[in-house]
Amino acid sequence: MMRSRADKNASVKVAYIAVLTALSAVTGYVELLIPVNIFGIPGVKLGLANIVSLIALYTMGPVYAFGIMTARVILLGLMFGNVYSVLFSFAGGTLSIIVMLILKNSGGFTIYGVSAAGGVSHNMGQLIIAFITLGGLKLYYYAPVLIIAGEICGLFVGALSSVIIDRGIFNKEGKGNDRIFKGDC
Amino acid sequence: MRKLNRNDILLITVITAAALLIAVLLLMSGRKGTCAEIYVDGILKAEYILTDDREVEIKGYNGGSNILIIKDGAAYMREASCPDKLCIHQGKISRSGQAIVCLPNRVVIKINDSEGGDYDAITR
Q1: Which fold has domain A5-167?
Q2: Where are the domains of chain B?
Q3: Nearest-5° angle of CA A92, CA A98, CA A104?
Q4: B4 to chain A: which residues are within 8 Å by CB?
Q5: How far apart are CA B109 and CA B45, in angstroms?
Q6: Which residue of chain A has the CA closest to B29?
């Protein structure tokens, strides 16, 4: 008996989610190895893992982007981090996906603007959590640096994502997978 | 590769302007300090009024020494016995809450204001 088309689509979808999650975890790990000290404060990262969030958001939809981000945060947290790093990453990731979704759906911005805003909101999400958990410290002094850093890294990530999406590897217009991501999300 | 559109450029400009505005506001809001406190190994050793120009030699931990200059309402390190000279590169401080730290000699210079800074009291 032949498997139904819906089943096949579902399994292809699962495979894509798995590939994107793995990519996201690996890019997240790789950027831990790259020390970025151009802004003079420790802990500023390029946000390469956000490439995957962007691809998922543009080709699959917000629910998938959110799920993949959550999986990455938990995986990296279990392997290299602690409860706080999970909390920080999750807050940053969630806020950035929400902001990127709003900007993308507004239709007025290209992937560069969406990504830059995502980078900034990621850093702001982390700053808010830091302010709540480590209250009393004058952390808001970092805000301008974090905003500019998020913006520049976001533009960079947007350019990379744009190239990857245009190649059609994960694209719904891409060869062979045109029917995978239609519909529900 | 796609190009940025006008909204993107507007968004980026607005974000940059906001960041610069916040930076300027934060820099303006810092209260001018009145007093430089010298800590060695965590213990308050001396306090000097910033309005009086002077040169202070600080005996640091483990025989190290630093020379602190107080001039025109600001404090800065001129000399340090440590190899890295990070404290000298930290430059002039004058606003309440700013600090110069010399880790090898365990010397911390902190600017305070007359209202007692961020804390009402400290217990040890």
Answers
A1: Arp2/3 complex 21 kDa subunit ARPC3 (1.10.1760)
A2: 1-30, 35-112
A3: 125
A4: 110, 112-113
A5: 10
A6: A141
The residue with greater pLDDT, A151 or A170, is A151
**Is-contact B117 B97, C-beta < 8 A?**
yes
B35-112, CATH topology level: mini-chromosome maintenance (MCM) complex, domain 2 (2.60.320)
Contact: A113, B2; criterion CB under 8 Å: no
Q: Tell me the nearest-neighbour CA distance from A106 into chain B, angstroms.
A: 11
Distance CA A54, CA A47 (A): 11
Q: What is the ipTM of this complex?
A: 0.75
pLDDT, tens digit, 9 for 90 and up, residues B49-107: 888 888 888 888 878 888 888 888 888 888 888 887 878 887 888 887 778 888 888 88
**Rounded Cα–Cα distance for residues A49 and A52 (Å):** 6
Residue of B1, B7, B15 with shortest CB distance to A151 = B15
Sign of CA dihedral A71, A74, A80, A86: positive
Interface of B with A in 3-32 (CB under 8 A): 3-5, 7-8, 11-12, 15-16, 18-20, 22-23, 26
Domain map (residue ranges) of chain A: 5-167
Asked if B20 lies within 8 A of A110 by C-beta distance, the reply is no
Which of A109, A110, A147 shows the shortest C-beta gap to B15?
A: A147
Digit-coded pLDDT (tens) for A31-88: 878 776 655 555 677 888 889 999 999 888 899 999 999 999 999 989 888 888 889 8
**Measured between CA atoms, how close is A33 to chain B, in angstroms?**
26
Question: In whole angstroms, how far apart are CA A103 and each of A24, A69, A121, B51?
Answer: 22, 18, 12, 52
What is the DSSP code string of B25-81? HHHHHSPBP-EEEEEETTEEEEEEETTS-EEEEEE-GGG-EEEEEEETTEEEEEEES
